[in-house]
Each structure stands twice: as C-alpha cells, then as structure tokens.
Amino acid sequence: MSLTSPERSDLEVDEVDVLIVGAGPAGLMMANWMSRWGVRTRIVDKRGTKIYNGQADGLQCRTLEIFDSFDFAHRVWRESNHMLEICLWNPPEDMDPANPSIVRSDRIPDTIPGLSRFTEVVLHQGRIERFFLDSIKENSIRTSCNGTGLAGEIQVERGVLPISFSFDESLAEDNAAYPIQVRLRHLTEEESTPAHKATSNNGQAVQNGLFRSNLAADDTQDLIRQSGVLGAKAGREEIVKARYMLGADGAHSWVRQQLGFKLEGDSTDYIWGVMDVIPITDFPDIRMRCAVHSESSGSVMIIPRENKLVRLYIQLTTTNTASGQKVDRSSLTPEAIIASAQKIMRPYSITYKYLDWWTAYQIGQRVGDKFSLNERVFLAGDAVHTHSPKAGQGMNVSMQDAYNLGWKIAGCLKGRWDRSVLKTYQSERRRIAQDLISFDHRFSRLFSGRPAKNAMDKEGVNMEVFKKAFEEAHMFTTAIGIDYGASLIVAKEGSAEKQGDGTDVIGDASTRVFSKQDRAKDIKVGMRMPSLKVLNQSDARPWHFQELLKSNGTWRVVIFAGDIRNADNKARLDVLGQKLASAESFLNRYTPANEKYDSVFELLAVHSAPRREITIFDFPEPFRPWSDQDGWDYWKIFVDDESYHEGHGQAYKNYGVDPSIGAAVILRPDQYVSWVGDFDDYAAMDSFFSGFMLVQSPSHIPTTQRGQAKAFSDNKQPLFLLEQKLTYMNGSKNGVTAMQQGISVVNGAL
Amino acid sequence: MSLTSPERSDLEVDEVDVLIVGAGPAGLMMANWMSRWGVRTRIVDKRGTKIYNGQADGLQCRTLEIFDSFDFAHRVWRESNHMLEICLWNPPEDMDPANPSIVRSDRIPDTIPGLSRFTEVVLHQGRIERFFLDSIKENSIRTSCNGTGLAGEIQVERGVLPISFSFDESLAEDNAAYPIQVRLRHLTEEESTPAHKATSNNGQAVQNGLFRSNLAADDTQDLIRQSGVLGAKAGREEIVKARYMLGADGAHSWVRQQLGFKLEGDSTDYIWGVMDVIPITDFPDIRMRCAVHSESSGSVMIIPRENKLVRLYIQLTTTNTASGQKVDRSSLTPEAIIASAQKIMRPYSITYKYLDWWTAYQIGQRVGDKFSLNERVFLAGDAVHTHSPKAGQGMNVSMQDAYNLGWKIAGCLKGRWDRSVLKTYQSERRRIAQDLISFDHRFSRLFSGRPAKNAMDKEGVNMEVFKKAFEEAHMFTTAIGIDYGASLIVAKEGSAEKQGDGTDVIGDASTRVFSKQDRAKDIKVGMRMPSLKVLNQSDARPWHFQELLKSNGTWRVVIFAGDIRNADNKARLDVLGQKLASAESFLNRYTPANEKYDSVFELLAVHSAPRREITIFDFPEPFRPWSDQDGWDYWKIFVDDESYHEGHGQAYKNYGVDPSIGAAVILRPDQYVSWVGDFDDYAAMDSFFSGFMLVQSPSHIPTTQRGQAKAFSDNKQPLFLLEQKLTYMNGSKNGVTAMQQGISVVNGAL
C-alpha cells in the first residue's frame, strides 16, 4: 500500500495523533475540532496558497448552527448575503417564439420559516476558511497557554505533498499505537503554485477556477514528478507517524487512491459555467435567488452574493460522455458564459464591468464505496461524494462529514470512549452521501431540462413539479432533516443496517436502550436538537437553547423536570439528584479522577415553574456544580417562561414535553439526539453510556477493560491537558464569556 | 493663557486638524469619528498604559445604538453581561431588630421593553477602549489605503503630557487657520506609570483604582514637575498646531484649567467603596442587578458582570465636607468594604476568593460653566460633569458628548457646513449635563438614605418612591429620552435658549423652518430616530431601520412615500424625484463637483405598498443612484411589509405615519431627527439645509460665501480623500458589507 517505502532512515520522524491531508472546509473543520480537544494534529495541503475568491459559497442553516457552536457564525452572518426568497422565471404561456421572453411565475421562501435560527446565506469559501483558521489558532493557542505546551498551535502547512503511505494493520485495534506512516515532501513555492493563468477581462486580471474544476486533470502526479525532477531544489522530506488520519483532499483524493477505495457512479451530460460579477442589468430580481428557464436557450441560476456580486450558474452545452467525447475547453470563456446568460434572460439585459471569478464544470454524481480503513484512516468531503453544486450542498456536506467525525476520534484518543463509536461515521455519513446523490439526480435533471411547453410535453420540465421539488428538498438541503439511524449512540428502534449504509453499529446488544419518543415528541432521536428560547433561572437572560450546546466535546443530559412546585416532580428530581451525585453514577464513573464531571457530561435543567417562584437552590447540587474558588455555577438551570424583551419560547409546548410528566434527553457532542426518556430514568441513562464509555476511575474498571484503560494511561497525551481545556470551555473558569458568545438571530424559530 | 511660551524655536512643529487630549472613552469616541472622516488627528494621554480592568462598566441602550452605528456593538453584546431585571431587597416589615434581615420586596425590568433594540449591559472599560482602538485603526487604515496617505493612521500616544497652551483669538473665525498651539512633552515610561501599588488580597496582587478616584489629588502638576526635574532623561518636546482641540482629560482636566473654565456644584457627604469579585454566596439574586437597603447598616448595589464577576457598590461612611474634614484613606480596604456588604446583606453570607479590582470615591455633583472656547477648543466628559456612578451614566454621557461633537467639527473641517453648527454642542450637551446633575441629586439621596421604617418616617426613604424614581429615570438614564432643543439643525418651535443651556443657536432666522410633527407622530423632532424593522425592496431582507444609519457623516432624507400604487402618492413621488434630480437641488448644490451626492446626503425610501407588487424601478432615479461601474444601487429603497422570518415591523403604524399622506424626515449624521414634514415638501428641505450647508459648486456660491469656499479649496486636505472614504462607507464600493455589519438583537423593538 505504498508508492515507495517510507522507511528511509535518514528522514526525520514526527509523531502526531491526527494527520489531516487537505485544508479545504472538511480538513479545516476536522482541525477545528482537534484544536478544541488539545489533540496533536498536523494538517497539510499541496497547494501553496489559500483561496481568496470564488469556489463554493452557499451556507445552509445547519452549517451556520455548527459554526455557532464554534463561536464564529456571527462573523458569517454579518459578512454574508442573506438569501430570503427564490423567484422562478419562465417563458410566459402565450409567448411569441419570435420574441423570446421570461416572466416571474412564482416566489417561494429560500428557507422555510421556523426551521432554524438561521437562514441560507452566501459568502465565498475564502472567508469561511479564514474564520476556521482564526478559530483554530485562537483555540489551539489557548490549549498551549494552559501551560502544557504538548498539543501546541495547529497551523496549516501549505505546499506539502504526501508521497507515500503505509499502514500496519496489526496495530489497527491498539488505540495507543501509530499504525499509519506517511512520507511528506515540502514543495518549493514554484511547485506548489497552480499553473493557472488569470483570465484577462475588461483589462482586469481575473481569477478562474478551472484548475480546480473536474474538467481539469488531477495534477498530483505532476506535482510529484515535477518535484522529483527538481531534485535538490525541492524542499525536505519527512516521515509522519499518526494514530488517526483524514483524507479531505478533494475529488481526486490521493488518500483514497492509496486506500484503493472507489467512487461509484457516473458523470452527467451537463456542462455548466459559473461566474461572479457585479451585474449591470434591468432584471428586477437580480438580488433574489432565481431559477430562470428559457424556452430553448437553457437555464440560469442567480445567486446574489456579498460585496454587490452576483453568481450566475449557466448551462452551456452538453457533452456525450458515454461516447468519451471531451469538452472543448477553449470554448469556455467569460464572454461565452455571459452571452449564454444574455440569451436566456431576454428581454432583460445583463452585462458587467467587474468580473471576480469564473469556472466551468461537468456534473459528476459519485459516492465512495468505503469511508474508512479499519476506522483508522477516514475520508470526507469531495473525496467520497461529488455532485451538482447548484443546491449549495458540496461545502456544507463536506464540513458536516468532518463535524460528525472529529469528536468521535478525539474522544477515542483521549480514552473517553470505545473505538466502536467510530463505525458510526461511515454508517451515518455514507448514508447521507447516498441520499445526496439520489436527490441530486432528480434535482439536476429538473434544473437542466427545458421547461415543458404544456401538460402534454412529457420531456420538458413541469414548473409545478420543479417548485415542489425545490420545496420538498428543503429539509434535506438545509441538513435540518438529517436523521441518523439506530446505533450504539442513537437509541432508537429498528435495524441499524437499514437505517445507515449497511454497517453494523449496534455494538453490545446487552446495553442497548430504546427511547420513549413520546416524552418529547418534537425532539426527534437521531436528529439535531431543535432550538427554542429559554431563560437562565439566575439572571433571566434568554438563550436560544442551541447557544448552550457549544462544541466542546461534552455529552449533555438535559432534564425537563416540569413544574417543580409540584411535589411529585420535585420528589422525582431529588431522587435523580441523589443517583447522579453517587460515587458510582455514570457522571463519576466515566470522569477521570482529577477532573470535574462537567468536563465529560454537562447536566442542564429546563423547568416550567414560574421563574419568579424558583431559585437555583430548589435544584439538587449536581445541577449547580460547586467550586471552592467560584462558588455555585449559575449557568446550568433554565426556565420556560416569558422574557422581558424576546417573547416566550414556549419550549415545553414546542418540544412536545408534558410539564406534568417531563422528559430527559441525551445529546451527543455534535448536538444530535441520542436518547429521549423519562426524566428520572437514571437506569436507562446509565445503561446507554455503559455501551461505549470507558470507566476512568481504576476501582470501577471491570477486568475486561483494564488492559484498554492501561493503554490510555500510558498515552503521552496527559488527561490534565484535556481537563484544563474543557474546564475553560465549559465555563468553570470563564462561564459567562463562553455562554455569551452565542448569537440570537431569529426569534422563536426552532 | 500659557504656563510657558510654546514658541521655543528649536522644537519641531506638527500641524493637525484636531488635537485630542485624553484617551478615555470620550477622547476615543472623538478619534473614532475622525477616523471615519479621514481627518488629520492626534490623540494623547498622560498615562503610560491603557486600562485593563475595573472602572466604569454599565452601557446604556443609546450607547449600544451608537456603537452599532460604528459597527462594533456586536462585540460588546457578545462579551458583556446582560442585565435584565432589578431586584429590590429591604428589611421585612416585621423584622426583629435583634436579627437583621432582608427580603426581596419587588422586581422591575432593568430596561423598559420596547425602548431600544438593546438592553443595558455591563463590560469593563478596558474592553470598550479596546473596541474603539480596533475601530479607529481599521478605519484610519482604510483611509490611508485609499491611496492618499494624508490622514494616516490615528494612534493613541500614551505618556504624552501637554505642558503649555496658547490660543490666537484673532484666527478663531477663520476655519482654515490654526489658532491653537500646544507644547507636548513625551514622558519616559517611569514618569507615565501611575505610582499606585497593587493591593495584595488572598495572596493575589489586585489592581485598585484609588489613583484615579476623586479621593486622590490631581497628579498632573506632579508629572510636569517630575519630568522637569528628570531633565535630559525626560523625552523630547514638540509643538502641535491645531485647527480644533478637545479636552477629554477627566475631572482634573488640564485643558479646562488652561481655559480658565469652572466646574460649578458641590460634593456630597457620601463615601462609597466599589469592588469586583467572584462572589461565594447563598444570596439567590447575585446574578441580578440588586438594590439592597439594610435597616441601619447602609446599602449595597449589586451589578453582575462578565466573567463571573459581580460588582458591589457599598456605602461606607459619610464625611463632613462642609467642615473640611478629609476621609481617612487608610480605612478604605477591600476587607473593610466586604465587611460592610456582609453586614448589609445579613442573613445571607457573601465572601470571595478572587478580587479583580476595587476603589472608593466621594460623590461630587458639578457641571462646567462653559463647554467651549470660541467653538475651537471643546471640553467633554468628566472634564465638564461629575456625579454618582451608580446609575451607570458617566462613561455613557461622556461618550455621547463626543459623539455629538465629532461630526460637527469634521463637517466644518471639510467645508461641508458653517461653523455656526458648532454652537449647538454646548447648547445640547451642557443642557444634558445640567439635567444629569439634577437627576443625580435626587437619585443619590434615595440610594444612600436608609429605608423608611413606616409611613410616618419622613427622613427615611420610602421604597415605593425609590422604585418609582428608578422607573421614571429610565428614559433619561438610557439616553433614549434625550430631546435636543430648537436650533439651526433641529427644526422645532420655541425658544432655543430655553430648550438648551441658554446659547443662541437659531442662526439665520430667515431660513428657519418648522416641522409638521403630526406627519410622523412617533419620530420626534430632537430625539434619536427610533428603530423598526423594514425590508429591503430588492432582496426582502429585514433590517432594523437604525442599522441603515451608520455613522459615516452623511445627512439622511427619509421619504415615507406611502402606498405608491396609489396614483396620487406616485405622482407626488415623481415630482419630488424631478426636483431632487435637478442640478440646482440641495443634493447637487452642497455636494462637491467631483463627488456623488450620496457622500453628503443619503436618500432613503420606505414605502407601504405590498413588496411583491413593486420593484425599485417604480422609484425615481435619485432613490437608486446609478454607477457606470456597478449599475443600480439596490440598498436605498425599503418596504413596510411582512418578513419571512422576523415578523412585520409595522413601521408606518409604529412611526405614526399615515400611508395615504406619507412623511419626510431629515436625520442628522448622529441619528437625531432634524425635521419632519410632508414627503414632497422639497421647499422646506431645501430651506432647512440652506441654513448651514455651504454651497460647493462654484456656480452656485452666492457672493457672500465665496471667500469661505475659497478657504476650503485652499485646504491641504483634498476633498477626494473624503469622497473615497465615504463612497466606501456608503457602500457604493462595498454596499452589502457595510450594511450587513449591523446586528439585529431584539425583534420589533423601537
């Protein structure tokens, strides 16, 4: 499994926990998670420079929710263009074919109201990558500042090419081992700068993205050959040994090639041009997202962007890939693309003086056959799925892959939970990729086809069908509808294989628990926790519930205790408190001896008694953890009541929780719902966590697990590093600041 | 008027437009304005370091609105603690005197709902100053980057002491002249570091603020003497010649002393201690703002802060200033202060392990007799008003002074308007200072007094009276209630002298216009423009109206044209459009020949027809300014309609505008309302601006103004600098970004 032996004895060897290949959105999301956990990480990219404009741009609701959990959604929200409405433009029914024209046939909201605190926004990829880089820097510096210096700052290393790979399968199940070896070559600046010329347009030099387009050949082999030829002039080489590895290196993924995994699927016949311009036009909806179908000249999708820019996706021609015919790349020019747009948008005029970026691509629809090698080397993003860009999915799904994976790996590295959790990555994300391609098949055809002339025209696209498809796809495209299948970390009924991609992810069936979904009808097991406004009991401040769920690696147990003035509710709460406080409780059993349990589990309460009749002292101590230095913790108990300035979240009603019965919810570190049940069903909670968590306190470790626990305690990465890190993030040191970094955007939305 | 002659011929001479003495919040606000206008500015402070903790902390609604107009309110909003509720604690009626205790007697909202998009928040002064410094840097760099390099980056020069001042009164009315000369001495680090020792507490070194307290003597003379003695070791000296100058140098203001102006008023007998701690307590409302009155041990005000801190204001003792008795400063210690709090808060316990900062002060209530010398040298902030800190007014009123002044001076410097505008600074802000002191007299007594024992106890403070005072003071303390009097820039009826501080600010009575307040009943002339949500016509995005009113120096004319489907409204709008478009219109007359009018006036429209039935092409061209480079401007026309995700602002209803009649509103560059009238009353608008604006195009200049206009054209500061600057800010280059920097906080609030 290696191009050349990586065992050259003269090379320096570096050991890391995680090696990330590729510093696009998926790789950066992974590095971002690692920065939160203080994991020794290297991230390399063969390109010498980051992206400054163009590329992907649409950000879906769920992506913004994730960004908010990392405290930088507000930067996107402020800089981006917000898309509120989609306008559909089509030939009028009574059109004179000699005078082609279009009319606005319908309007639909771009994001269904109530779906999320956020709406879809547009901002170019270079800015997104900047926010990741800032976030990674800020957080890995904090880790270093905590005094250990072990993890250090994670910095993207650009112009670094992986040139060989080997994997020792015998070490695969030894979590502490380094089964992965990769030889890296540091390219010179000349080698790592892509050989694309800026296009000249109106006298400006304009960046084009053809070198990254799927119409361009993979240049990795060229880079390797070239840097070999350059010989001594090329930079140094080194060996990196890694415990885990992520290939987030795009559609031509070098990592995927090393693993011998395949992309399965086909290319379509459609070729599209894309350009970002400041439009000069009399088209009245140029600042709306528009789908424009012409009678016979193809279609345009209009995506209004930041800084007065508008992106135009324009259907150029078709190519018969079945016959192997290749596109004539010389015909792909900005002039040709805008000329197509002008034809499609008649009678409106559209031109530009400022062109920011352009590219062209052919739609391919493929999914990787496997997403991981022994749950040690993983693939994410374009490396395992490619599809049409027009539903704004690519960058979002890629980042969400890495968001799903990061915490799972980090928790294994830290000895928090068993490696069996890692199988859920392929089960959950490959299934999403499969769903994405099915969606894309349908959506691309609808968008690329010509409009139906009338009800009898079966080859044309019926505009009612098109509108319906747009609307129905919404839960999927926003990623709010994602519903992960049953597994050892998603406690629901049914076949894990059928609900996922076929992988067996139930683990030890003896600890399997099932949810009582009816305790919280609208907190769906397998889906992300919806957000409603609740008030902090101590200071009456309203928070969107999601704002409390920062991505800091903790599991969360949320207790909806109902109206605790009611003696029954209060008694059940007190009994729960006693069980949680016991030395044998899961809170204590799975927390390292020198840490506080809230570095592993965050216990949150939401009650429904009137705020003014309750204080935090009505709750058992585990809900307001004591610190000798700082006194009580005032940021864990919340109430479903009217706020002074932001209305009433009606959390019980909208979450579907009966205040007289209550509910408990277990949330994964990525905000997905693991389990719903009775709020005092301590036994189910304990059983759920015992399915994958590793006992930390030696006296609690069953004989069968002791070897594994020893492996962790031998780990060079000391646990106190994690403790300091998470203490900080959870707010024991800086509680208010951490919580105040959320932003409230749309009131009352789910 | 000078300590020593500044005319030493061996000193370097620097010429600036504005010299600011003092880099606290008032000085920084001034520098911030100047950075927006590309004005050559220096800002000096005698202290060698900035503030890192403690000091003022409360930020009122209006201050946050102002910060938002400068694009950094979101930083405050995220980091600060939000105070939502005030709890009043008092001895119970049936208290046993042998067992002193307190009970919660009432709760009131800290900010009246609906008053502003923001609520009161708390964040220490050091962070506020940091946001100003970042904002000044970012904006003055932008100015420099525009290629002129003339204004350059404004940087605070610390450890720089002004040591002499002279003023040439004969040049006072020559706007282009430099009548001010100040000699500056650059202190060594040793000299500029205040000689306060950190207090030791629980083994920590703790900053105390006594050296800045009014209980400490002024150290300016010490600094001057000391640096003189140090002789050659002291840093260099220089002369700065300035066109305008601001003294924002605190209660002991050196600038005020040079001018010979007086602070009028008295000290009170009350001594208060202040401390910032992380409290360890069983008091249930420690995260609420609380006013705690004990039976006979004095009172505590609790202000919960960021980073788990809580500020305690504690009444310590009284001192008889009338008899000249001085406070024993050795009795002022953190131990003494917390001991007082413990006594007052019985039976609850309160202590701490972490102390962040502490100080003590005596309340003085004084106002400056004059706020400016010939409208050339101005005073702001503590230099002209001192009072109790407990209503959270000091930092806010100081910043608002400079916010009121900055644009007025910058516009004069740029030749936009006449110097007569400058008189309104004293008229408006001295009146506010006077009102503040009257308010403070009443509020301090209520807060410092002991609670009334019963209805017969006339010496004690009745708690109903206290609560009422709190509530009534609200419009004043939030600064939302500020109502500037009639002047040449506030078109309302009545006596300018009576509505202000006695200064004559009407100017040329022949151009005076009056408002028709009933056209927009709730957009009050003299008050700040309230904020409601409106939608951008072009992209359906909701904006809080204030978000559109960035502090970039433009005047704004807002046309509420009503339902423009109505033929009458449409006809009136079209006639207005023709008048505005004419070469003789005020838009064109007062705009320099090489600029676009939207660098001086921004024309905004808010209509009330259904959004879906209108496009921007239904509006005359002046409402969508054309650019050959960028096409139409899509960010000037708004609609009062339902949004998809943020409700309906009901702007017409809540502004009190009849859709069939409409209204026009002129807004000053600081968001205050100048005039309200008929939306097509072009004549009144023209007359209003002719009262103080200076004709820019030579052919329009009346003979009487030509000399003045020439003075501006001789100015070293070319107008194109301003043009580039404002073009950028107004968004002709970056429209969406500039507009997107606003934040939406509380839905539907005014």
UniProtKB/TrEMBL annotation, chains A, B:
UniProt KW Oxidoreductase keyword: yes
GO MF assignments: FAD binding; oxidoreductase activity, acting on paired donors, with incorporation or reduction of molecular oxygen, NAD(P)H as one donor, and incorporation of one atom of oxygen
Domain Phenol hydroxylase-like C-terminal dimerisation residue range list: 482-696
InterPro entries with a match to the protein in the record: FAD-bd, FAD/NAD-bd_sf, Phe_hydrox_C_dim_dom, PHOX_C_sf, RIFMO-like, Thioredoxin-like_sf
Domain FAD-binding: 15-439
Keywords associated with the record: FAD, Flavoprotein, Oxidoreductase
Pfam annotation, one family: Phe_hydrox_dim
Family designation: Belongs to the PheA/TfdB FAD monooxygenase family.
Name listed for the protein in its UniProt record: FAD-binding domain-containing protein
